[in-house]
Amino acid sequence: MNAESLASSITHLYSTLGLESTQPVSIIPGGLLLGKHHPLHNPSHPLLITGISDTNQCSEIYSILSCVYPDDQTVKIVFEQAGTTSSCTELLLADLKKGLEIKDASLVNLLVMPLSKDNAFEEFQEIIAHLRAPNGCPWDREQTHLSLRNNLLEETYETLETIDRNDIAGMQEEFGDLLLQIVLHAQIAAEAGEFRMEDVVSGIYRKIVRRHPHVFSGTEVTGVGNVLQNWEKLKQQERADKGVPEKGLLDGVPVILPSLTQAQELQDRAARVGFDWPSIEPVWDKVMEELDEVKKATSPEEVEKELGDLLFAVVNLIRWYKVDSESALRGTNQKFRRRFKHIEKSARKIGRDLPSMSLDEMDEYWNEAKRFE
C-alpha cells in the first residue's frame, strides 16, 4: 500500500469510527503488540490497533491492554473485507477475553477509547512542567535538587511505611508522591540543560537490559545466586568501560543509608562472592559470642564498640532468615508505639499520669495491649 492509499484508508477509518481528523490517535499494527507485556502508547489518546487477522490474537491483545484499561472500557471493532468496511461493532474490552469471531472479514481493526488525561505519564510531565513555567507555581519554581532533598527522603520513608502495613491504597498514593519527586527533579534538570526525563528512562532501560542477559540475550544462569554474581561482574565491566577507577565490592553501598540497611547490604554483597557462613549455626554462635563480649566490656568506649559488633551480628542473623532488618525493626517500633499509647490512654481513663504509676501498673496495661493485638 502506497502513502496515498494508506492516507485514504486511515481517513475512511477515522470517519467510520467517529474520530475527528484533528484528534491525536495512537496507531499500532496488531502484530507489533503480540508478544509484548505492556501497551506501547499514551492511554489518554484513542488507540487504533490495525490488521488483526487471527481470532486468537484478540485474547492476547486483551491481556496486554488489561494492564492499563479496565474491563468496561469501550472498544469499537471494524471488520474489513478487501479494503472496505463491512461492519462496525461496539463492545467492552472484557468481550475480547474469549477472542473474536472474524467470520468473512479479512482483517479486524480495533479502537480502544481513551482514558482521561490524568492516566497518562506524558500528561503528568506536562503538569509538572506547567508548575515550573513562568505562569506556574511560585513555590515549585523556586525548588532545586538540593531544596527537594528532604522531600524525597520523607516520601521514600512514607512509602516504606505503607509497604510495611500492606496498605494497598496507601501504597498507590505514596508511589504517586514519590513519582512526583522524580518527575520534578527531571524537570529541573531539563530546564538547566543537565538531562531530561527521556535520558533517565533511557538510562535505566539500557541498564536493565544490559544487566539481564539471561532474559534478553540468552545467557544461561543457575538460580538467583548466579544472577547476583553475574550482576556484580556486569557492574564492574560497566565501570571499566566508562574509565571509572576500580572500586571495591562494598564501595557501591551508600554510606548515607540507615545503619541497619547498610549493614545488611554490606553483608549481602560480601556473601555474593562467597564471604559467608556455610550454615546458620555459626551465625547463631557469632551472636552469642558478641553478646558475651558486651557483658565482659569494662569501659563505655568498649561497650559501644561491642554493642555495634552485636548489632552487626544480629543483622546477619536476620539476613539468614531472609528478613529485612530495617522493616523488622520498624514493625517493632510501631508495635511499641501502639502498646505504649494504650498505657497512656488507660492511665487517662483512671485519672492518673504516667510518672505517678509504678512499673508493675504500666506493665499490666502493656500486657493488656498485647492481648488486644
3D structure, described in words:
The chain contains 15 helices and 5 strands. By secondary structure, the chain is an alpha+beta fold. The chain has a 5-stranded mixed sheet with strand order 1-2-5-3-4, sandwiched between helices. A hairpin with a 2-residue loop joins strand 3 (74-81) and strand 4. Helix 4 (121-132) crosses helix 7 and helix 6 (149-164) runs antiparallel to helix 7 (168-191). The longest helix has 25 residues, at 325-349. The chain is extended.
Brief overview:
The protein is an alpha+beta fold. Helices cover 57% and strands 9% of the residues. It is built from 15 helices and five strands.
Sheet with most strands: strand arrangement: 1-2-5-3-4
Distance between the termini: 70 Å
Given as residue ranges, the uncertain stretches (5+ residues, pLDDT < 50) are none
Average pLDDT level = 87
Structural class: alpha+beta
Order of helices and strands: HEHEHEEEHHHHHHHHHHHH
Descriptors:
alpha+beta; Helix Hairpins; 4 domains; 9% strand; extended
Compile the SSE list and pairings.
Layout: H1 3-17, E1 26-29, H2 30-33, E2 47-52, H3 55-65, E3 74-81, E4 84-92, E5 107-112, H4 121-132, H5 138-142, H6 149-164, H7 168-191, H8 197-210, H9 213-216, H10 224-241, H11 259-272, H12 281-296, H13 300-320, H14 325-349, H15 359-372
Parallel strand pairs: 1-2
Antiparallel strand pairs: 2-5, 3-4, 3-5
Helix pairs in contact: 4-7, 6-7, 11-13, 12-13, 14-15
